From TrEMBL:
The gene is sufC. The keyword Iron-sulfur does not apply. Keywords: ATP-binding, Nucleotide-binding. InterPro entries: AAA+_ATPase (IPR003593), ABC_transporter-like_ATP-bd (IPR003439), ABC_transporter-like_CS (IPR017871), FeS-cluster_ATPase_SufC (IPR010230), P-loop_NTPase (IPR027417). Pfam families: ABC_tran. This is Fe-S cluster assembly ATPase SufC. Residues 6-250 form the ABC transporter domain. NCBIfam families: sufC. One of its GO terms (molecular function) is ATP hydrolysis activity. Belongs to the ABC transporter superfamily. Ycf16 family. The keyword tRNA processing does not apply.
């Protein structure tokens, strides 16, 4: 069986008729953590939303293969049930819906998709409490409405709790470090590291090298103008922090 979780070939996409992705290529294998960095407007968040099936984005060419199947043929909910998880940059508040109810419905939808018996509230409580303990979270999170009144750090940790419970084959973290102070960043990063497994993969989208001090990626990609221009190891992130992106963009221009 192939260990490739995600394969993206020559992907092009647009929003409102404006091209955003312009020949995007990426391969992620099981057990790997990849990070995509790049200047604003490069298409990083667009790519994450396309993976999740956001209807505002139109794929105009190329392919996305997830665990051997054509991801573009799946509706957003089927992508989620099949193991694609997107942690939002700006998580939405859902007043009146408790975290524990939201999590139980999500968890049981995935179990049903896998042909497994759904858990009742009592059995589910044991499962979710184990994840809360793993992530060192306050159990009171479960009784609160989804993200309502949460700080930025609490919202991001709540996204990671969802990922811990659903155990996706591909976790996509869209600027999970955005708006976090250093203490919250360490907690979120520690939770992501705790969830790493040999059979799963993680894609991190970030502007800043500081997150990669705490989550060590196997591969770092530099993205600009809708495609990946350069890939490397953790040292590439340090170089970007020191030099910015201009040297990569200038090198691409010379190569062109």
């Amino acid at each position: 069986m192939s260990d490739v979780i995600l394969s993206v070939q020559d992907l092009t996409a647009e929003v409102d008729g404006n091209p955003i992705l312009k020949g995007f290529n990426l391969e992620i294998k099981a057990g790997e953590i990849h990070a995509i960095m790049g200047p604003n407007g490069s298409g990083k968040s667009t790519f994450s939303k396309i993976l999740a099936g956001h209807p505002a984005y139109t794929v105009t060419g190329g392919e996305i293969v997830f665990l051997g199947q054509n991801l573009l043929e799946l509706e957003p909910d089927d992508r989620a049930k099949s193991g694609v998880f997107l942690a939002f940059q700006y998580p939405l508040e859902i007043p009146g819906v408790s975290n524990v109810d939201f999590l139980r419905v999500s968890y049981n939808a995935k179990r049903k998709h896998e042909g497994l018996e759904e858990l009742d509230a009592f059995d589910f409580d044991e499962v979710v409490q184990s994840k809360v303990t793993l992530l060192k979270m306050d159990p009171s999170f479960l009784s609160r409405s989804v993200n309502e009144g949460f700080s930025g750090g609490e919202k991001k940790r709540n996204e990671i709790l969802q990922m811990a419970l659903l155990e996706p084959r591909l976790g996509i973290l869209d600027e999970i470090d955005s708006g976090l102070d250093i203490d919250a960043l360490k907690v979120v990063a520690g939770s992501v590291n705790a969830l790493k497994k040999p059979e799963n993969a993680t894609l991190i989208i970030t502007h800043y090298q500081r997150l990669l001090n705490y989550i060590l990626p196997d591969v770092i990609h530099v993205m600009a103008d809708g495609r990946i221009l350069m890939s490397g190891d953790k040292d590439l992130a340090l170089e970007l922090e020191a030099k910015g992106y201009d040297w990569v963009l200038e090198g691409e221009a010379v190569g062109a």
